[in-house]
Design goal:
By secondary structure, the protein is an all-beta fold. It contains two helices and 75 strands.
């Protein structure tokens, strides 16, 4: 009997009140039918008596043939929320009650509907720039829109056309971002109009209604002021300057990373281009010589993407508007000075048609000249019939074979060479080639005209064609183009000797110029006392006392020699030791009959050390390119500039040849201490003495960061001030501590001065800095990093947090948070939320209705909860304040008794809470089988009924107590 009673008690405790009764249809209460929501709303209905739980169906069709969310949903709540967002569209829902054993009641009727859709596209408005507006560099090309609740992210579409088919050649440009703005990181085309549209996306990647297509025009102001300077005339503008060393300069163009400079002889600069170069600096000195002409020049900026700015024409010369005159001694006002005949001591030979037996012509070295062209012609003399005859005129003839010289010399002197000797290797064997004039020679009694013009260097036009650049001719006292009574000189003939003449080695006193043991700054000419028995001389110049390393070897008839060959000039390097020279006389004009060992000819020594360039550069300011400037050097055709990162010049940064006395680097040098020096290079491409070493610190500036937001809920745009000349920027980010993603990462390069990251993986303090990159010779050159900048990536706690728990339902809700993709809800029994949770869930909508099946809900009592937004990157934001709600506690009621119809028996009811603590004062109602009695539990939590049931059937025991759930058990009366 006891066993049977226990089983009976167990059975009756399983069923709640009215479990066997019929169930009514629930009445849908919320939301109102047909409303539209940005996220799936909470669905609520009226409680049904006798219901243990409810089955809810949601469908995308009104006849419920397309169920969503996995089919029917079950809950013990009278509210239900869906954890995941639904695709945008129209939905219908219904609910029905169910008993614990699964018996189902009727569906609510009629089915109600709701629409899920993000707000219409019109709500997404372009904040910046305004539609059809414009953006101008240096503003970052950033577009912004109004963020909307329910959008977890956005898709930006952009294009160069309103159809958004391609952005600057990139088809179907599209970027998904957590931000509500976007910065175009590639360079945009100046003057182009761009179109863009944004599409909201919810937490489950459903795309909402696109915004209208907006547009903006990108502008780049690329005008600048231009300047021109003749470095040889820095104080002003000479109408006809003797030497022009041009330097072009202009103001920096914001956004330009390079500049293109063109120089041409046509004012339109559409053709006749002589120079076309690009540079990163704002100064340019041509590294190729320009011919004598009037020139025009212009410059334009080029941005990081290679887009060209407008041409900026030069127009600053007050004497020559829009142009400058490139000249090299082109005017009679700038002739070669002191062109004269001299004797072997260097003294001028004066007089009209002076008699000369060993012609030696000299002149002053001309600034800017690397060589000289010397022309010597026969003069045609006309006399009258008087006795003695008088000279009527002298005309310099055209070239006459055998008596015409047209030579290029690198020294400021000229002498004729000898005729071809019998032994073309000369009497003194050595490594040099003997120079002589061959069949060209002066004739006794003839008169000769002389003229000289300076030569700078070859010019090169835009097609690569070279042409020599000469100055004007200067004549030596003669009628060159018109009859005149004067000529340059009268040749009286070289010394001659009879057959019995004997020549010997010269003594030391024979050598005149250069003075023995002297130091000269240029390649010298040589003179010596004539040997009356000599008809010719072999001249040997060597770099060692033993005369083994001969650098010049010539044969002459007079007692003077100006270094040259019949075809080219001759110049000597600067020598750190000394030069040695000797003369071997020959008895005959064909070079025979003389001594043969030059080492016995009392060689004389001299030193050659040219004056090196003087450096005049100062260290540039941060962000400015250095401009190297040096003084002009006599005899220089070009200059060799070398820049290195060490003072030994073993690590070369750049080396180049230029005819100018200034150079602004056309690429970016690396940061740090740099060293530089310059040497002149003469006509023979011989490098002369190095200048002193200059040094400067090359500083590549770091971008500066303007004041901007230091914290935000949305992904921000990081901005910095553009750096002149930068081709791009790299950004380094340091994630907040504890973030799983890499702590430090470098992004870019970006073309503009701003970047909007698509997402930030972690809330907390992000640290970032930016670095500019500059155009180098083969790769970009990084500048310094900016100081670190802090940004607090926050997500504000949800607002409007509330709990509705009246009747038989519980609904937790809050206001939507901008930028939230999800919400994390935590429910706990403790206000500090520090122990085991009753429930932790992630939901997409700003509401949560628990299914009430977890033990924490079934047990009831005071529960605590809070909620935080979670973005599309899973960053968890700040928690809301902890709130609480109160649920009726669960009663545990036991009823025991063996009842028979008409027989006395008893029912013993014991009541405790879930902690098994007895509950006193609980109301116990016993009804059925003819029994109707109300009792209260005692301090021990028990109540006893005694009596005899009047009929068989079921006795229902209902236990209630304020703040507790109602508990119903049944006992069968037999």
């Amino acid at each position: 009997m006891k066993l049977r009673l226990a089983v009976l008690v167990a059975l009756v405790l399983m069923f709640p009140a009215q479990a066997l009764a019929g169930l009514a249809a629930p009445v849908a209460l919320a939301p109102d039918d047909g409303l539209t929501f940005a996220s799936v709303p909470a669905l609520g209905w009226s409680p049904v008596a006798g219901a243990d739980h409810y089955a809810v169906g949601v469908s995308s069709t009104e006849n419920f043939t397309a169920p969503v969310a996995g089919g029917e949903l079950s809950t013990s709540n009278t509210w239900i929320t869906l954890a995941k967002a639904l695709p945008y569209g129209h939905y219908w829902w219904r609910v029905r009650a169910a008993t614990k054993l699964g018996a189902l009641g009727p569906w609510s009727s009629p089915a109600t509907s709701f629409v899920v859709a993000l707000p219409s596209a019109g709500v997404i408005a372009a904040l910046a720039p305004p539609d059809t507006g414009s953006l101008t560099y240096p503003a970052a090309p950033t577009v912004r829109w109004t963020p909307i609740a329910g959008a977890a992210s956005y898709r930006l579409k952009a294009g160069s056309d309103a159809g958004l088919t391609a952005l600057d050649g990139v088809a179907n440009f599209s970027q998904a971002t957590d931000a509500a703005e976007y910065t175009f990181t590639g360079a945009l085309t100046p003057g182009a109009t761009y179109y863009w549209q944004v599409v909201p996306i919810d937490a489950e990647k459903s795309e909402g209604t696109p915004s209208p297509v907006y547009s903006f025009t990108w502008h780049w102001t690329s005008t600048t002021a231009t300047r021109y300077l003749n470095l040889r005339d820095p104080a002003g503008f000479d109408v006809d300057p003797p030497v022009v060393d041009p330097q072009f300069s202009w103001d920096p163009i914001p956004g330009a990373v390079r500049y293109q400079v063109q120089v041409g002889s046509s004012q339109s600069l559409s053709d006749s281009i002589f120079l076309d170069r690009t540079t990163v600096g704002t100064k340019l000195s041509p590294i190729a010589n320009l011919p004598n002409n009037r020139f025009y020049w212009h410059v334009r900026g080029i941005d990081a993407a290679g887009n060209n700015g407008v041409w900026n024409a030069y127009g600053g010369d007050p004497l020559n508007p829009l142009s400058f005159l490139k000249s090299f001694y082109t005017s009679a006002a700038h002739p070669i000075t002191h062109l004269r005949l001299v004797d072997q001591s260097g003294t001028t030979i004066a007089g009209t048609r002076p008699d000369v037996g060993s012609p030696l012509i000299t002149w002053d070295p001309m600034p800017g000249a690397s060589a000289y062209e010397v022309e010597v012609r026969l003069a045609q003399m006309t006399y009258d019939n008087q006795t003695p005859p008088s000279l009527l005129s002298a005309v310099c003839t055209n070239a006459v074979l055998g008596e015409y010289w047209d030579d290029i010399v690198a020294v400021n002197a000229w002498t004729p060479l000898g005729i071809k000797p019998a032994n073309t290797k000369g009497p003194f064997p050595n490594n040099a080639t003997l120079s002589f004039d061959g069949i060209v020679q002066m004739v006794l009694g003839h008169h000769y005209c002389v003229r000289v013009r300076p030569y700078s260097a070859d010019s090169v036009d835009g097609g690569g064609v070279k042409a020599p650049v000469y100055g004007a001719w200067t004549e030596l006292d003669g009628g060159w183009n018109a009859p005149s009574a004067t000529v340059s000189f009268h040749f009286t003939g070289y010394p001659t000797c009879s057959v019995s003449c004997v020549v010997d080695y010269p003594v030391a006193a024979t050598y005149l110029l250069p003075a023995p043991s002297s130091t000269v700054a240029r390649t010298p000419y040589f003179t010596w006392a004539a040997d009356p028995n000599a008809s010719g001389y072999f001249v040997i110049v060597a770099q060692d006392a033993a005369l083994t390393n001969v650098i010049d070897y010539a044969y002459v008839h007079g007692n003077a020699y100006a270094p040259r060959t019949p075809r080219a000039p001759v110049s000597y390097p600067d020598e750190t030791t000394r030069y040695y020279w000797a003369v071997l006389p020959s008895a005959t004009a064909n070079g025979a009959g003389g001594p043969i060992d030059a080492t016995k000819a009392n060689p004389q020594l001299f030193s050659k050390t040219s004056v090196p360039p003087a450096l005049t550069v100062t260290s540039p300011a941060a962000g400015q390119r250095p401009t190297f400037v040096w003084s002009a050097v006599e005899g220089a055709k070009t200059y060799r500039l070398v820049v290195a990162s060490d003072d030994k010049f073993s690590s070369i940064v750049e080396t180049l040849l230029t005819p100018a006395t200034s150079y602004t680097p056309e690429v970016t040098y690396p940061a740090g201490d740099l060293y530089w020096r310059v040497a002149a290079v003469d006509w023979d491409d011989i490098q002369l003495s190095w200048s002193a070493t200059g040094t400067f610190k090359n500083v590549l500036p770091a971008p500066t960061v303007p004041a901007q937001a230091t914290h935000a809920d949305m992904v921000p745009t990081f901005l910095w001030n553009p750096v002149p000349g930068a081709i791009g920027y790299k950004v380094e980010t340091n994630s907040p501590p504890g973030v799983i993603a890499s702590v430090k990462k470098t992004w870019g390069p970006y073309a503009g001065a701003g970047v909007t990251f698509l997402k930030l993986d972690g809330t907390g303090i992000w640290r970032w800095r930016v670095q500019a990159e500059f155009p180098g010779k083969t790769a970009s050159v990084p500048g310094d990093w900016s100081p670190l900048v802090d940004f607090d990536n926050t997500m504000s706690p949800p607002t409007g947090v509330s709990a509705a728990n009246g009747g038989h339902g519980l609904l937790l809700s809050w206001q939507p948070t901008i930028g939230a993709a999800h919400y994390r809800v935590e429910v706990s029994r403790r206000p500090d939320m520090a122990v085991t949770y009753v429930e932790r869930v992630l939901v997409d909508s700003p509401a949560y209705a628990p299914a009430m099946i977890a033990s924490g809900y079934r047990d009831g009592g005071r529960l605590y909860w809070h909620v935080a937004a979670v973005d599309e990157t899973k960053n968890v934001g700040k928690w809301s304040d902890v709130r609480s709600f109160l649920l009726p506690e669960r009663l545990i009621a036991h009823a025991a008794g063996l009842l028979r119809k008409g027989k006395k028996g008893s029912i013993i009811v014991t009541v405790t809470n879930v902690q098994r603590v007895s509950l006193a004062g609980a109301t116990v109602r016993i009804s059925g089988a003819g029994i109707a009695r109300t009792l209260r539990t005692t301090a021990s939590g028990s109540a006893v009924w005694k009596g005899a049931p009047r009929r068989a059937g079921t006795v229902t025991v209902t236990v209630t107590k304020p703040g507790y759930q109602t508990m119903v058990v049944t006992i069968v009366v037999r």
